[in-house]
Amino acid sequence: MKIKCSIVIPCYNVAEFLPKLFDSIQRQNSDAVEYIFVDDGSVDNTGALLDDFCEKKHTAKVLHQKNTGVCGARNAGLKTAQGDYVFFLDGDDYLTDNASEIFAKVAEEGADIVCFKNLVQKGGYDAPQRLSKTTSKIPKGIYDVESFLTFDYIASAGEVFRLYRRQILTENQIAFDENLSMGEVTAFFIHCLVNSQKIQMCDDAVMVYLVRPNSISRTVKFDKDYSIFDTLDQIQDYCDTYSPVLKSTAAIKRIVVTFSLGFTINKYAKSGLPWCIEIARCFDRINKDKYYRKCFSRMVFDSKARRETRAISLMITLFPARIAYNLMKTKKNS
Asked: β-strand 198-211 against 113-122: which pairing, if any?
């Protein structure tokens, strides 16, 4: 049987989560999907568990390598993929029972990128299993890139997961940028988007996304957080290189604003952190970059943006950095 989809799963010290993932794979009904695990230098029992599972599962394989980070692990799996499409799944998440059937079905429709909703489980596996399905403002259907970009937030990694046609990746030499450590999934998506013609939006949920309290996006690490600006610069480079008009769209500007806020300033305000040089550095980066300033100014008048985002953008646009930050903290505590 021809392989319709390759699921690449980077794994680093995820032994406690693998049984749930293995069980979800065993529940799949289609053999047209291959599973490529990449043990990225794990020091727990991850490697042994993967070896044992893949020895018994004929559609699964495991690659062992020195630790390179999640982007390097994804790229290693991508190089060995044989499916018409590629899907990237983290080792602490798992598939819905009918995911493989959905993958095989949509592969017949020929879109370059297929976007799915997902189920969210908060609090880790020990928490009560209350799964909620993500929502999207993009209706089910098939779009060209121009039509797709008319919608609101096109790149929310926590709400949408994507299937990529492998031919698009190989022909355009698209891979995860291993120099990026924050928002790399969105940068990869934009790189694919500017090289695509047809995008499909599905209502189906194909995976369960585990939200853990100590996830990177929720933990304050100033230097790592600041690297989100490297990702946003890379997205600008993709736009300038492949589709200059894309850079001026509201969709890309929303990415700049929501990512720069969500990974840095807004996260710090929610945490109640006092003003410090690291927070000042983030404001300084936004205020001194003409394109970023333009994005924030545009957001103030963007009726489709969240009211909170518009209010914060107005504060940053009008007030000195320290005053704007204190206003954000006051708003969070009110």
From this structure: parallel
> Of 113, 10, 155, nearest to 71 (Cα)?
10
28-161-86-139 Cα dihedral, nearest 10 degrees: 90
Q: In terms of C-beta density within 10 A (0-12 exposed, 13-18 middle, 19 or more buried), how is residue 145 classed?
A: middle
Prediction pTM value: 0.90
> Please, which residues have CB within 8 angstroms of residue 136's CB and are 6 or more apart in sequence?
115, 117, 159, 160, 201
Q: Which pLDDT tens digit goes with each residue over 266-319?
A: 999 999 999 999 999 999 999 999 999 999 999 999 887 889 999 999 999 999
Cβ-Cβ contacts under 8 Å for 7 (sequence gap 6 or more) = 33, 34, 35, 36, 86, 87, 88, 89, 95
Around Cβ 130, how many Cβ atoms within 10 Å? 9
